[in-house]
């Protein structure tokens, strides 16, 4: 009698491991884009930077520009979490102070210098610009759901849709306004991060006018 054969090969990756791989590819891609330009960067180079084959890179992303998507998404996710946790009736400034003191930076996710360099590239690289705008297009319904939960309204309520659009536009405008001023010198990074936070506070406060 022949014994049943067990499953061979590598075990399937967990979702956490897949997320980790995507993040590693994203960071490698942006480092290469910043140092040598998008046109000069290949899938093979991105893979080599994280010990993967180009074939594996393309398994996770359809194009080299799309590799940076997770870095954009992480920042948006942390804003969505903030909107969901913002207590009803609490002024935005107080909520921001409480949230920042609790831990995550307002930009969240990847370091701000990396995101700033990447956003600056979106000004001249159409492929990256498309990924950047797609991230915000996908963010808007997430913002709407968070604001709807906060207000006890349906996610499709027109007031929620408009407020989500305002927060979305304010966030993108603030990040672009800050990033397009240029890369900071090494000794200016701390002051620049404070400026970014102040810019985001101002933009979100404008969008929050009328939200209770």
From TrEMBL:
<protein>
    <submittedName>
        <fullName>TetR/AcrR family transcriptional regulator</fullName>
    </submittedName>
</protein>
<keyword id="KW-0238">DNA-binding</keyword>
<dbReference type="Pfam" id="PF00440">
    <property type="entry name" value="TetR_N"/>
</dbReference>
<dbReference type="InterPro" id="IPR001647">
    <property type="entry name" value="HTH_TetR"/>
</dbReference>
<keyword id="KW-0805">Transcription regulation</keyword>
<keyword id="KW-0804">Transcription</keyword>
<dbReference type="Pfam" id="PF17754">
    <property type="entry name" value="TetR_C_14"/>
</dbReference>
<feature type="DNA-binding region" description="H-T-H motif">
    <location>
        <begin position="42"/>
        <end position="61"/>
    </location>
</feature>
<dbReference type="InterPro" id="IPR009057">
    <property type="entry name" value="Homeodomain-like_sf"/>
</dbReference>
<dbReference type="InterPro" id="IPR041347">
    <property type="entry name" value="MftR_C"/>
</dbReference>
<dbReference type="InterPro" id="IPR050109">
    <property type="entry name" value="HTH-type_TetR-like_transc_reg"/>
</dbReference>
<feature type="domain" description="HTH tetR-type">
    <location>
        <begin position="19"/>
        <end position="79"/>
    </location>
</feature>
């Amino acid at each position: 009698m022949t014994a049943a054969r067990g499953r061979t090969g590598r075990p399937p990756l967990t979702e956490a491991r897949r997320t980790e791989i995507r993040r590693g590819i994203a960071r490698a891609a942006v480092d290469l884009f910043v140092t040598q330009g998008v046109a000069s960067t290949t899938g093979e180079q991105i893979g080599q930077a994280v010990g993967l084959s180009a074939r594996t890179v393309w398994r996770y992303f359809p194009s080299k520009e799309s590799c940076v998507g997770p870095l954009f998404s992480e920042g948006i996710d942390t804003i969505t979490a903030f909107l969901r946790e913002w207590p009803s009736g609490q002024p935005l400034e107080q909520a921001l102070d409480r949230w920042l003191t609790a831990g995550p930076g307002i930009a969240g996710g990847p370091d701000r210098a990396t995101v700033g360099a990447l956003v600056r590239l979106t000004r001249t690289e159409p492929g990256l610009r498309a990924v950047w705008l797609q991230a915000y297009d996908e963010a808007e319904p997430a913002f709407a759901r968070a604001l709807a939960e906060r207000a006890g309204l349906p996610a499709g309520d027109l007031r929620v849709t408009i407020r989500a659009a305002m927060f979305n536009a304010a966030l993108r405008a603030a990040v672009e306004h800050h990033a397009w001023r240029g890369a900071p010198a090494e000794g200016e990074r701390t002051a620049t991060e404070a400026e970014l936070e102040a810019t985001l506070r101002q933009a979100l406060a404008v969008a929050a006018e009328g939200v209770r």
